[in-house]
Give the backbone structure.
Amino acid sequence: MLKIKNRYFNIGVDCTNEDLLSESLDTTFPRRYLPEYKLSRDNGVYVDALVKWIISNDRFELIEYRLGEDKDSYIIRSSPPKPYINESPVFFLLQIITRVLIKKGYIVLTDTSAVWINGKTILLVGYPHTGKSTLSALALYHGDIPLSTENTVIEIDGGEARIINGTSVLVYDPRIEDLFNVKIKYDELTRHGYRIIDLNKHVLDRKKILEQKPVINQIYILHCSYRSGEPDLEPVRGRKIRKTLWYFATALIKGIDYYEPNPLDLSTDKELEILGKKIDRLGEIYGDKINEIYGRHDKVYEYIRKH
């Protein structure tokens, strides 16, 4: 059996062609979206979720699924994931991993990145194209350490929230090279010319910091654009805190992050109750440390770095 796992989740895959699937899952494409994992092969009984994967030449098809308190099970038919050709299996795996993590009491915030800047952990939240990847690239260029690039796993520990896992592949817009005079060694290119960096190849301290479960010091909701100017801050207060956190914390399990032919809604009342309590606690802890920030990417990064 092929296992997709780390210390927080263990997904078993009963596959008709383990070699082919393992080769696909060991590329940078799935690692752009799935919290960091390793692949292994063993016949151990315990898994958090079991996927029977029928390898075919077809696009992704969910045949059957059952949700349980201890273990979820799924049957799918699909070719191995590949960018631009068959991406849905990756987002399906992201959903089932998210559900497992929520059941264990963790929060998975989508559309987020986390960066270690001057010894502080900054959580950046924002819809697509609002600056997360660009700020992560700027941080990397200036010697800071991106901890997560797209989907971030958070643990609430008493009066603190800690980053415990996240995605390890950074994809950024090459326009920043000319706009901000940033040159970074990259590993691959997307079809559209975006730069791809495997952080684990280039940032050796990243895993060490994550192992320490760094405490989040500040949360910024980004609104960056290339045509903006100096940074402007607006504190997030009251109901807006929960509303904002709720969206980014439930988007994955509820299937708001779309994939073909249509995403599952893997949430039940129990998972949403668990998540609601965690989000309330996160809002209590960071009630005075959540700000919306507007401005040009490099100016916003400079502000965050100084504060």
About this structure: DSSP finds ten helices and 18 strands in the chain.
